[in-house]
Amino acid sequence: MGVLHCISSCVVLPCKPRKFSITTSSLIQANPAPFRSLSFSTNLSKNAFCKGSFTVKPIERQTRRSVVCEASPKKKADSAAKRARQAEKRRIYNKARKSEVKTRMKKVLEALDVLRKKADAQTEEILPIEKLIAEAYSVIDKAVKVGTLHRNTGARRKSRLARRKKAVEIHHGWYTPPAVTA
């Protein structure tokens, strides 16, 4: 702080100093040993500045210019705009297909839960559920065919329905799994 006070009392600077470049006079350049470490600390005294041994020149920093993003997006290229339209159409189409698959599966699973909880269920009561399962299989297969669902996902969902149906049949005693012989 004392050094800055010395600078402001010895030299009039046009701006607030941020960084200084110190140039020595010819006398000091001949004998640079005592002034190797030029830092604004105890190495430089008020006398050195005021006697004119040093000249102080302020170095102006360039102001940084930042790039400001526009609030509104730039216009897309024609091909990108077309791709965006196509993607949106596909998204809506796939969303409807997936929703239909979920709805069909939910109907089958709810019907199987009701049948499982029923104490005096008959074998014929599974026939309407088998029709629901066939419709669900059809919807799943169509979704796989057009690419909405991956084929492994379709197979897993169909397997889930079949396993749940078999669990209900085993629960009521309509189906007995074969004994595993080792």
Number of strands: 2
Given as residue ranges, the uncertain stretches (5+ residues, pLDDT < 50) are 3-11
Alpha-beta content class: mainly alpha
- Shape call: elongated
**How are helices and strands ordered from N to C?**
HEHHEHHH
Q: Summarize the main sheet.
A: 2 strands, antiparallel
Question: Under the CATH scheme, which class of the largest domain?
Answer: Mainly Alpha
Cα(first) to Cα(last) distance is 92 Å
The CATH homologous superfamily of the largest domain is named: Ribosomal protein S20
What is the mean pLDDT?
78
Architecture (CATH level 2) name of the largest domain? Up-down Bundle
Main-sheet strand order equals: 1-2
- Measured by DSSP, the beta-strand proportion falls in 5-15%
Number of helices: 6
Summarize the structure.
Belongs to the bacterial ribosomal protein bS20 family. With 182 residues, the chain is mostly helical. It has helices spanning 2-10, 26-30, 46-50, 78-117, 126-146, 151-172, and strands spanning 20-24, 54-58.
What would your notes on this structure say?
- The chain is mainly α and 182 residues long.
- The radius of gyration is 42 Å and the shape is elongated.
- It has a two-stranded antiparallel sheet with strand order 1-2.
- The protein has two domains: 2-58, no CATH class; 78-172, Methane Monooxygenase Hydroxylase, Chain G, domain 1 (Up-down Bundle).
- Helix 4 runs antiparallel to helix 5 and helix 4 runs parallel beside helix 6 (151-172).
- It has helices spanning 2-10, 26-30, 46-50, 78-117, 126-146, 151-172, and strands spanning 20-24, 54-58.
